[in-house]
Amino acid sequence: MPKTKKEGLYFGLMMCFGMAVVMGMYNMIRSGQYEQLTFGQLVLGLLLAFVVAFVVELVIVGPFARKLAFKLPFTKKKKVIMILTISTLMVIGMVLCMSAFGLIMSHSALGGASWSEYGENVWKNFVVAYPLQLLIMGPVVRFLFVKFVQKTAPVSLGS
């Protein structure tokens, strides 16, 4: 969808912001941290999650997901299939990475989280992140991106 690197950066920022805020809140509520944190700590935690998610998406998960999607054996001509494939690979990669980040943050905040919880966190995060990405955040961000960010060629009214 983005046509330039600059557009790709904006699209990634928009998608990461939405996903990081919703998934961060979901995980804070699920772990019980939401009631224990001050408003400032909550905002700082969500901001940190956004920054980490954006760097992970930009440097690791995004390039890998796109490269893998183009290597998979199916026709690349159908735009919706490519969007679904890349979105699926992105969610899998981001859930794996951000679940580890969340576990590290939870351990430092609460002192009780352990790596044995990683598999359970991955599953619980995937079950929320995948439909969130496909049904809500993906369409909303694409709409906002096209409406406010992506530059379209001016329409010619004649010669």
Detailed description of the structure:
The chain crosses the membrane at residues 9-29, 41-60, 81-106, 126-145. InterPro entries: DUF2798. Keywords: Membrane, Transmembrane, Transmembrane helix. This is DUF2798 domain-containing protein. Pfam families: DUF2798 (PF11391). 81% of the residues lie in helices and 0% in strands. It has one domain. α1 (5-31) packs across α3 (39-71). The two termini are 29 Å apart. 20% of the residues are buried. The protein has 159 residues and is an all-alpha fold. The chain has helices at 5-31, 33-36, 39-71, 79-110, 118-149. The model has no long low-confidence stretch (mean pLDDT 89). The chain contains five helices and no strands. The longest helix has 33 residues, at 39-71.
Features:
DUF2798 domain-containing protein; DUF2798; globular; 5 helices; about 160 residues; mainly alpha
Gyration radius from CA atoms, angstroms: 18 Å
Mean pLDDT: 89
Strand content: under 5%
Helix content: over 70%
The succession of helices and strands, N to C, reads: HHHHH
Strand count, sense and barrel status of the largest sheet are: none
Secondary-structure-derived class: mainly alpha
Gap between N and C termini, in Å? 29 Å
**How would the global form be characterised?**
globular
Number of helices: 5
Number of structurally distinct domains: 1
Give start-end ranges of low-pLDDT stretches.
Answer: none
Number of strands: 0
